[in-house]
């Protein structure tokens, strides 16, 4: 991905270079390109996970409010089960269980010999045709699969928290609004779509923005799933390198790399805050909240 | 009879598919010179990577190294995310309860303490850093010293430098370069310890076919002395060989 290395011709023997050339060489090593690439991985993960988690949350909250008892139980169960379990447990065990579940399901259809037990003590084995992805697949597919598992796991975990936030937001919409809609003869579905959902976002936004900021900072959990994120690379690059095998030996530089991450996270959260405050203004328009009322008065004057 | 035929057919087909399979090998990528990331290229390298490639060539396997955190390296093997572990993992009785090992490809080597001065106490009352889930961590826990565990090896060395721990206990081959580079700031203590049965390839207990192949390949490298050449290349001329 980094093209032919080293980047510059003069990098052949770094130990003889003046510091500025040394730094230019150092910052263009293969490991550094991996580090730069991991920023893209993280941004991509956030871009995919956030909408998926929001969808999970919306479904969870809608299910929890359902008048049909089993559906409501399912929604509430999902929220309680995920919120009550430490994230790390999900990331260590849920992913392995999910991965095994997928392979077990595939094995029922593609394996010729189903007589062998799939789970044998701690071991899990299916025939090679049932592996997901196949062992023969290119490394990129293994990465894509790990990434998809990561998105799904993040979405499950953050979806449960989002569900709780959205559930609360739905409850916060003034009852009078819903009753008025009912009085106009709207069906339950119409009340939900036309009155409840458009009005609940403003109540959900503070909670959801919290979740978004937590999600931004939760990406180091990715390494547990075999994906190397920015924190992994910062740690790897910053850890002390001894002179023997490393062309660029240095002491413990983790503090500098973590400072770079700090700047990245601060800029990213600041940009997020600006975007969220615009969203808040957008959602406040015409709402029966303090902010919405203030807006109405400004227009009326 | 029909069943027998079918079983044979499956067995034949099974081995046929096996020969073309990719054997995925899990490694940590943070334990120089055993397995680490090449600073210049960003690829995995080290003694175990070079050895693994040679073993696979001899066993006519198509191998691929994958990186995995040390913490979850055994569960992911059992779960089938890769088929073997080559991550400086010592053969111990405790690990043999959950996974299988090939014969060792590094002889039992010395573990050593690295500290800020040569007269540091490592016994009762001392605080010793070690990586979680290693034989060294187990040894420290039983030695009477207070064990301070870290997820990655470089953190254990950092803990000594910043005074969090009195000494770090790890494979001598990992610690020696730190002592060499430190201009006398860090010293290896003379009380070295031999623990573990050497380092071997970790395998699922059910994967006996793969174990046999690796064992044969390791044996052939021991017989022609090439494993010793490789050990000397990565660990220095005066390292312990077979």
Features:
A: 301 residues, mainly alpha, MetI-like fold, two-stranded antiparallel sheet, B: 242 residues, alpha/beta, D-Maltodextrin-Binding Protein, domain 2, 2 domains, six-stranded mixed beta sheet, five-stranded mixed beta sheet, 39% helix
* Alpha-beta content class of chain A: mainly alpha
CATH topology of the largest domain in chain B: D-Maltodextrin-Binding Protein, domain 2
- How is the largest sheet of chain A built, in terms of strand order? 1-2
Helix count of chain A equals 10
Class of chain A in CATH? Mainly Alpha
What are the secondary-structure elements of chain B, in order, as H or E?
HEEEEHEHEHEEEHEHEHEEEHH
Report the total helices of chain B: 9
Cα-to-Cα separation, first versus last residue of chain B: 49 Å
Beta-strand fraction estimate of chain B: 15-25%
Helix content of chain A: 55-70%
Model regions low in confidence, pLDDT < 50 over at least 5 residues of chain B = 4-19
**Element string of chain A (H = helix, E = strand):** HHHHEEHHHHHH
Number of domains of chain B: 2
How would the blueprint of this fold be written?
The complex is a heterodimer of chains A (301) and B (242).
Chain A: H1 19-26, H2 30-65, H3 69-83, H4 87-110, E1 119-120, E2 123-124, H5 139-172, H6 175-183, H7 188-217, H8 230-238, H9 254-284, H10 290-300
Antiparallel strand pairs in A: 1-2
Helix pairs in contact in A: 2-3, 2-5, 2-8, 3-5, 4-5, 5-7, 6-7, 7-9, 8-9
Chain B: H1 2-20, E1 22-27, E2 30-31, E3 35-37, E4 44-45, H2 47-58, E5 62-67, H3 73-78, E6 84-85, H4 93-96, E7 100-101, E8 110-115, E9 127-131, H5 135-143, E10 146-150, H6 153-161, E11 167-171, H7 172-181, E12 187-188, E13 193-194, E14 202-203, H8 208-223, H9 226-235
Parallel strand pairs in B: 1-5, 1-6, 9-10, 9-11
Antiparallel strand pairs in B: 2-3, 3-4, 6-14, 7-14, 8-11, 8-12, 8-13
